[in-house]
Inverse folding.
């Protein structure tokens, strides 16, 4: 039993240490060039060039004017209460750790009592 626990702990540490050297995530992805039609589809409220000024500066082209409909949809999605926060994840992790340690403690007490009973009542062989 102890060797199994040691094996699990060591394999966890090894897998954690090998995952640190790989860079992953959206922040480390290369930029993807998209067409102007795709940009217009995903950013419907960007400023459109006018007939007087066909080319907008970069800062003005990336400015998005938000509408109340977009704000309310984003707020509803953000406060939907469907996700689990960092406190929930920490609570689950700590609870799992507590249950494991309690199980190990119960196992230790059972083995210790069994050994003490065998020492107290030695079997007499005839």
């Amino acid at each position: 039993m102890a060797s199994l626990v040691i094996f699990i702990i060591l394999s966890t540490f090894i897998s954690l240490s090998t995952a640190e050297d790989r860079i992953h995530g959206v922040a480390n992805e290369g930029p993807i060039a998209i067409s102007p039609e795709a940009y217009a589809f995903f950013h419907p409220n960007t400023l459109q060039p006018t007939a007087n000024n066909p080319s907008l500066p970069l800062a003005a082209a990336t400015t998005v004017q938000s509408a109340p409909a977009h704000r309310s949809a984003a707020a509803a999605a953000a406060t939907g209460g469907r996700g689990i926060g960092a406190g929930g994840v920490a609570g689950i992790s700590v609870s799992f750790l507590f249950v494991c340690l309690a199980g190990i403690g119960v196992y230790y007490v059972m083995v210790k009592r069994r050994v003490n009973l065998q020492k107290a009542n030695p079997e007499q062989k005839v």
Q: What stands out?
A: The radius of gyration is 31 Å. The CA atoms of residues 85 and 91 lie 10 Å apart. The chain has a mean pLDDT of 74. Helices lie at 2-19, 36-42, 58-61, 68-78, 86-120.
